[in-house]
Design goal:
The protein is α+β, with helices and mostly antiparallel strands. A 5-stranded antiparallel beta sheet has the order 2-1-5-4-3. Helices cover 46% and strands 11% of the residues. Pfam families: HTH_3, MLTR_LBD.
Length: 272
């Protein structure tokens, strides 16, 4: 189903209706957004009805208060008659090359533990050597570029048969994907989530923990040919990015959750 924001985009609505749909998507009243954006409630009403036109600075300020992804901030600027503020640099841009080299260095330094860089749609951009231990037995079709990490993890021909706590782990991933889809008003992420929820063994229900203090974090338990591996997942992203491509990048690190996992991975790295 197309979201209200998606419908506003598809129908080519102007700044006012698009602003209103984003405000409603964020569950804010006109008064609340006006206060956060240092705008009078009356002027906010006029902006949404088209009786007033915003300045470029006001559009950017409201987009910041709405916590819009950079691509959507550009859409809001275009709808108001202004040029986009954020661009996606080409791969051969010198600054982006430096970023990619830095990312490869970070991932290599994380070996022999798995790590990968993904884009906003969870498509793999870079992965380190340590990630290979998770790919044994995965169907070749799932490793054809672009490789979607979410699909690779939960697909019945992917990692799923070897994930010992598939029910809990799939709950965690679907909950995360749902929040991302809502936050970005992304039809693509919503469709991906719907696809994953239909896979066998995947549990699509609210995450409820009876005893929140019984463990530090939910581990990924994976049955490899070298033994059971238990990982804790850590996510990192770029602070204050001003490039659309960079803003969508996420770095996923997997750290050993116990000594046995650490020993297996370090021993494997020593023997090659």
């Amino acid at each position: 189903m197309l979201s209200a924001v998606g419908a506003a985009r598809q129908n080519g609505y102007g700044f006012g209706p698009l602003l209103r749909q984003w405000r409603l998507a964020r569950r804010l009243s006109q008064e609340a957004l006006a206060l956060a954006g240092n705008v009078s409630p009356r002027h906010m009403s006029f902006l949404e009805t088209g009786r007033s036109r915003p300045s470029r600075e006001m559009v950017l300020g409201l987009a910041e208060q709405l916590d819009l992804p950079l691509r959507d901030r550009n859409e809001l600027l275009l709808a108001a008659g202004f040029a986009p503020a954020y661009l996606a640099r080409p791969d051969d841009d010198p600054q982006l090359r430096v970023v990619n080299e830095t990312l490869r260095g970070l991932l290599a330094a994380h070996d022999p533990y798995p790590a990968a860089v993904v884009d906003s749609g969870w498509n793999r951009l870079i992965a380190n050597e340590g990630s290979r231990i998770l790919l044994a037995g995965v169907a070749p079709a799932l490793l054809t570029e672009p490789v979607n990490i979410m699909r690779l993890t939960l697909h019945p021909e992917g990692m799923a048969p070897r994930i010992r706590n598939l029910g809990e782990w799939s709950q965690h991933l679907l909950h995360r994907l749902r929040r991302q889809a809502i936050g970005a008003n992304s039809a693509e992420l919503a469709a991906l989530r719907e696809e994953l929820a239909g896979y066998p063994g995947v549990e699509d229900r609210p995450v409820v923990v009876d005893d929140p203090g019984r463990r530090i974090a939910l581990p990924l338990e994976y049955e490899s040919e070298h033994g059971t591996l238990r990982f804790l997942s850590v996510t990192a992203s770029f602070g204050a990015p001003s490039d659309i491509t960079l803003a969508g990048m996420i770095i996923e690190y997997l750290y050993p959750a116990d000594d046995a996992t650490r020993d297996i991975l370090t021993g494997r790295a020593r023997t090659g």
